[in-house]
Amino acid sequence: MLPMTDEQKFFFDLRGWILLPAVLTAAQIEPLKAEVYGGARQSYEGKLQELLDHPAITGILTEILAEDPFVQEDCHSFRCEGSFTTVRPPGWEKSERGDNGLPHVVRPPQQANAMRYQVAGGRIFAGLTRVVWELEEVKEGQGCTTFLSGSHKAHFGYGGPNKWAPNIADSPWEQAMRDTMDGYSCPPGSVAIFTESLIHAANDWTNPDNPRCAVFNAYNSVWSQWHRTNLSHDIIMSMPPKRRTLFRGTWQLGAGGNREYSQDNRAL
Ligand SMILES: O=C(O)CCC(=O)C(=O)O
Ligand SMILES: [Fe+2]
Hints:
- There is one protein chain.
- The chain is α+β, with helices and mostly antiparallel strands.
- Helix content is 18%, strand content 17%.
- The chain has a five-stranded antiparallel sheet.
């Protein structure tokens, strides 16, 4: 497990997202791509499950989702609560997504909530966190996920009529916000990590050279849950014991804490 560097902490706190370029080698990417192009819908089975607790991200997730006393050798100190894959051929349009590419968050960070980005006592707690594995080359401005950097710490609303809306719907500043959003270019095998309190959006895939082939995994604190788990006990049992603990029940109090996954200790 690689610890999160001070540079990564600085930029994650400042912007709400970081990119880890070229984490995977070409030889490592090939079987993962074959699974996604072959129809894998999530990252729970096959080789793709190795991405769930890949050593390049576990140190970062431990830093931004856990407290030191809960960091153990035999279990992960954070939860995985969702996964999906996407294949977007050249010409794919954001209208294929339910949200039509509307910039959104999990919950608006202007009001307190359990999924919110926080910093206290010199530590980050990132709430619902997304890890995106890009298995094909990405060129900025041609369809990657985009971010309104810094918006995870916004104190004022997005300008829309409903302060509880988890998106910028009907804001008179929509175009100005879209124009301010950042993207990234990266080689295949790179990872983007962002807090879901950050305004972010899906975009038309206009890159004519290759499809987008990406895996989106969602993580949270061992004490909180946003997504309903969509994963069978049998698939979890096919994972190594430590990886299984990503899916244990969402609680902690008790002798020895909550360190093992089992059929009657699973997040539902
Ligand atoms: O499809 C995309 O690029 C955006 C994905 C997204 O909204 C998310 O991961 O929460
Ligand atoms: Fe999203």
